[in-house]
Request: fold
Amino acid sequence: MTMADRKQDTLFVNSLAKGLRLLEAFDEEHQSLGLSELAKRTGLDKSATQRFANTLYQTGYLMKDEATRRFRPSHKFAEMAYAYLWSDPVVQLAMPKLIELSGRLGETINMAELSGSDIVYVARIPCQRTTFAATLVGRRVPALNTSGGRAILAMLPEAERRACIENWPLARFTPETTQDRDKIAELVEEAAHLGYSFSRNELILKEIGVAAPIIGADGRPVAAVHCSVSAYHWTREKVEKDIVPFLLDTANSITPSLR
Amino acid sequence: MTMADRKQDTLFVNSLAKGLRLLEAFDEEHQSLGLSELAKRTGLDKSATQRFANTLYQTGYLMKDEATRRFRPSHKFAEMAYAYLWSDPVVQLAMPKLIELSGRLGETINMAELSGSDIVYVARIPCQRTTFAATLVGRRVPALNTSGGRAILAMLPEAERRACIENWPLARFTPETTQDRDKIAELVEEAAHLGYSFSRNELILKEIGVAAPIIGADGRPVAAVHCSVSAYHWTREKVEKDIVPFLLDTANSITPSLR
DNA sequence: ATACATTGTATCGAAATATGATACAATGAA
DNA sequence: TTCATTGTATCATATTTCGATACAATGTAT
Reply:
């Protein structure tokens, strides 16, 4: 449905959608925004931006630095995450098992769910050496560039898999981030055979990632458990020996039933 | 500003505010909601609820189970948390230090910020034995019922402190949750002297909590670092000896500068 | 299987609400 | 100081939302 169609749709409240656009204007590069920057980023005119920003401020979604007049996301953003995490049966099931895995391995454990062409981290148990961005829930990363995403992809039917690999966006995080779709196809193929996916230097240099898919009750992959270790201390062989068995075990034990 | 005043305010977009009410309708007791339940909880009529829910669905904020027609929060909720956490200078500063502390103590570490009369957990590093709700970012708990909240309160000026203790809401999580405001005043007083706050059985039975405040550049408390341990393995004395020094050290090292 | 209550979906005229142009104020840079 | 930029306030207009109503689908009790 295009924007024009929505204009006609009497069940679509444009004012709400526009207001939500303001919330989405805040990201890594835009931690705080002034009114005119907000207008630019949302494509709304000055007056509309003013009204929506004010509304979000009054309702507590945005904070306002009275000195600079700039807006920033508020706690409410974090509270919303709670509502989501609490409601997600996979998270409920997984959490204790992820903690256990983290205790056993002593390394960073993540869980991510597929959201469109990205994965979204929904659980993170950091350890020393974990980079800041990798400690925060809700981060979105293109699925094709992560072991987690590729582990999930590997469990999809052949045709679907292929289409995703062709069309989904790629990003570049390090000089080594895989940009070649044929190479990604290979990696996914490999993951389909092994039952887990391996990555190196994709998001951060000298980082090794292993991920195993979590399969839903309908047989489709819903998420991935992911372990991230330093290439200074680990080799692929050592990971396969000391991490993969536990990782697979954990992932397999998290199989959500139909409600 | 009351609802009636807002009606007059041309800078307040009611449609946006109403839409946001739907998002807030989801909490611990309401993981998924049907249209009429949503209407009941938000106080909107059937048609309005229909339009707003549909809009939130179209924009990806709510998921819809096509079988049951019930709505649920989506990943977007978690992504918003990322925007917030990323933008918060205290979180940025604190995260690595919290991880270090967790590594050193081997116990659950949290950080919470004051939000009105509640504290909101913005960072959580769980360990074995951590209960599910205590692993999720964004949880809101009445400040008076937590060591974290009381540690923050203790750093406020006398008069302000007193007013909060008189007026802020209390909840009951266990039979032992402190309900007596005089007792709470005592505990806050103690925290003001010691520089940290101690709790027992407040949120969960057999849980001991210690919390130390983080002071902002303006001298006012902005957050608290919190450590939670089992009363089966720990006593107050042992906590004071083996945990408090490190906790205070960590909290003190997180002092955000003015931008 | 049938009737009934409940919940969700679709439509539309009326009117309240958001619109966005504009003017003004405040800030900060030259 | 002047000028450019950003934020704030106001208002007539018509676009949007409103909410009553009718209809469809679901599930429950008889």
Q: What stands out?
A: The radius of gyration of chain B is 20 Å. Chain B has eleven helices and eight strands. The longest helix of chain B spans residues 89-105. The CA atoms of residues 25 and 41 of chain B lie 6 Å apart.
